[in-house]
Amino acid sequence: MDDNSVMKKFTTVNFLNFALGFLGLQFAWQMRIALAEPVTSSLGASPLLYSLIWLAGPFSGMVVQPIIGVLSDNTKSRFGRRRPYLLLGALITAVALWLFPHSAGLSDIIGKVLHINMPVWGGLFVAAIMIWIIDACINIAQGPYRSLIPDVVPSEQHAQANSYISLAIGLGSVVAMSVAPFLKFVFNYQMSIPAQFLMSGLAFALAMTWTCLTIKEKSSLNSEEVKDDNQKQSFWESLKDFFLLSPEVKKICTMQFFTWIGMMCLLIYFTAFAIHTVYGIPDDTDFVVAQSLKDAAQNYALIGLAIFNLVCFLIAVPIGTLANKFGNKKVHIISLLSMILAYLGLAIFCHHSIAVLCFMALSGIGWSSVCALPFAMLSKYIKPGTEGSVMGIFNIFIAGPQVFVCTLVGWIINMAAINGGMNHHYEYSFYIGALCLLLAVAATATIKE
Fold first, then answer.
1. How many CA atoms lie within 13 A of 257 on its CB side?
2. In a domain, 138, yes or no
3. CA–CA separation, 39 and 220 (whole Å)
4. pTM for the whole thing?
5. Could you tell me which residue, 222 or 204, shows the higher pLDDT?
6. Cα–Cα distance between 189 and 209 in angstroms, integer?
């Protein structure tokens, strides 16, 4: 029997329920993206060292997601194929998020327990380990979550399902980024960085637990659709099959590669850009700056990311509707072009705080499309039973480009010092990002739908 013939169409309520876990996941990602830089810089990390610590994300994405994808495809469990990985990833991430901003204290505790004098960079070393754990465990959950779409959603609703994931990404990010500025504006209470990380960990664990309890997977221990041991594929077999799916898959991967170089130029460096370029706070940790100015700059960075994700949230469902009507390719190209324009605006008007927020809003259009349409394009080529493997391998073309951003772009920014080395040209990342997004547009134009 055809898989789609036994799948019930999702209603709006079904889609919202399905996307809730990803909303919690985005709490974790956004806190990691927005506030990792203030934590690591306070421990003495330079722009280049911060970029190198960011390598945790791409390396864990390139290694963890493909492996977990293959494992989840071949998992036989009374709890289903994907749910064990969703819950495990969420719970470990929650603990690591809670510990991360306390890295300096953890370093001291480790030194006392082992009866050794920890070096001055001990706190930064612990922070780097925590980031690696956070990124690896988020990836443990994220890959199988994307694989649930072809598992449980009819193929004709895949674009819609991915658009609801975009909606969850936008809404989760908006809420996560808005809490601290809202409390400051309304109650004049500045929420501490450790409290924000704790909040994001709890949100991730609770939302993912809800998803695991309420989503019925297509395959479980007693399902005939789960492969037996003789049908299991290794990672390398899955990788070979992935590239034999269709010539269009290679074009989609090329598009994704350049897209994510461009995306990470914003996601990695926007907080530093807001604090050190827009607000002009020196990178040098020895330079004394009033705490009120630091808090204002951090809240401004959160507001910028909240606006960016608010637009993603508002147009997530319309993006899916437009894609169904006009095609994924056309809508995606227009969305990427809007983001290129936004990046150029961010770089050129980098000292105008209101303009920066407006361009962050414009870039949210592209972000909404990036979160949904490439996955909708790829889902047409996925064979039943290989959903986790394909999504895990596809993630290589999301994670891999980040290595370029964390190394070469980080080095360029580190070398572009101003004011005697006290600050850097973080806006350069947007020029590089705009160029890479233009290459992504060119790749998208070659895809046949």
1. 13
2. yes
3. 42
4. 0.74
5. 204
6. 30
